[in-house]
Amino acid sequence: MFGSNGKSNNVGIIGLGIIGSRVAERLRKAKHQVFVWNRTVKPEPNFLASPREIAEVANFIQIFVRDDDALKSIMAELAPVLDVQHTVLVHSTVSPDAMKAAAAIAIKEGAGFLDAPFTGSKMAAENGELVYYIGGEDIVLEKCRKILEVSSKKILHFGTNPGDATVLKIATNLISASVVEALAEALAITKAHGVSPEQLLEALIPNANCSPVITMKLPAMISGNFDPHFSLANMLKDARYAQDLARDKSLRTPVLDATALAMSQASKNGHDQLDFSVVAKNFDSP
């Protein structure tokens, strides 16, 4: 357990979306002293006025913001007050270049830094079952391990280079997005031929291609419950990061491109804040 004497073991959470808010609550329940900030004010305990204030009261700073621009803005606000006592953990899915730039700012000021994206959505965060992908020095990871363990079931260390864990996170997300688009197409074909959607689920469960993504998303797609566990807006953002990485190395990605196009159509239909499985609605009759 971390004490509240001074700021040495306090934790700051920046970004109170689906995951950040639940990680903060996990830390509170584990008796950690937690301070939070979000661009939109939320009725959370110890809500402070700025990222700078977070750094003034907490040495461990966990960042859960949405994209490159948001991370760049946060790091610019933190930089003047970071020092050797701080450790910055960036859990956002951003571009590897943005992650490397954030690391450079923290390290320049003497702070520790971890590239620390995660896999797992709303319920995983709520139940402390995220899996963190880590890029950073061993000594920094060990310093933060007890904090990460509060919200995770596994911590995977992928070397010391900031950006590498982020590449892996983007790569795994493109697989999830593509599987869900394939699932939406399979569901549409099944329904169009008069076969019960529930029978599709029954057929998939013992099939070699079944996965937690399928067993989680297909029932929701069948029922039309698109309560966000991972928003369409965020998955489309991540798909575009993946496309950027592919273009950078002149790689063709037809499956990724088709999936991004399907998500873009769902976004144009106004579904950004719903779960990314809402791509199933692309097949609804006009």
From TrEMBL:
<feature type="domain" description="3-hydroxyisobutyrate dehydrogenase-like NAD-binding">
    <location>
        <begin position="163"/>
        <end position="281"/>
    </location>
</feature>
<dbReference type="GO" id="GO:0051287">
    <property type="term" value="F:NAD binding"/>
</dbReference>
<keyword id="KW-0560">Oxidoreductase</keyword>
<dbReference type="InterPro" id="IPR029154">
    <property type="entry name" value="HIBADH-like_NADP-bd"/>
</dbReference>
<dbReference type="GO" id="GO:0016491">
    <property type="term" value="F:oxidoreductase activity"/>
</dbReference>
<keyword id="KW-0520">NAD</keyword>
<dbReference type="GO" id="GO:0050661">
    <property type="term" value="F:NADP binding"/>
</dbReference>
<dbReference type="Pfam" id="PF14833">
    <property type="entry name" value="NAD_binding_11"/>
</dbReference>
<dbReference type="Pfam" id="PF03446">
    <property type="entry name" value="NAD_binding_2"/>
</dbReference>
<dbReference type="InterPro" id="IPR013328">
    <property type="entry name" value="6PGD_dom2"/>
</dbReference>
<dbReference type="InterPro" id="IPR036291">
    <property type="entry name" value="NAD(P)-bd_dom_sf"/>
</dbReference>
<dbReference type="InterPro" id="IPR008927">
    <property type="entry name" value="6-PGluconate_DH-like_C_sf"/>
</dbReference>
<dbReference type="InterPro" id="IPR051265">
    <property type="entry name" value="HIBADH-related_NP60_sf"/>
</dbReference>
<feature type="domain" description="6-phosphogluconate dehydrogenase NADP-binding">
    <location>
        <begin position="10"/>
        <end position="159"/>
    </location>
</feature>
<protein>
    <submittedName>
        <fullName>NAD(P)-dependent oxidoreductase</fullName>
    </submittedName>
</protein>
<feature type="active site">
    <location>
        <position position="169"/>
    </location>
</feature>
<dbReference type="InterPro" id="IPR015815">
    <property type="entry name" value="HIBADH-related"/>
</dbReference>
<dbReference type="InterPro" id="IPR006115">
    <property type="entry name" value="6PGDH_NADP-bd"/>
</dbReference>
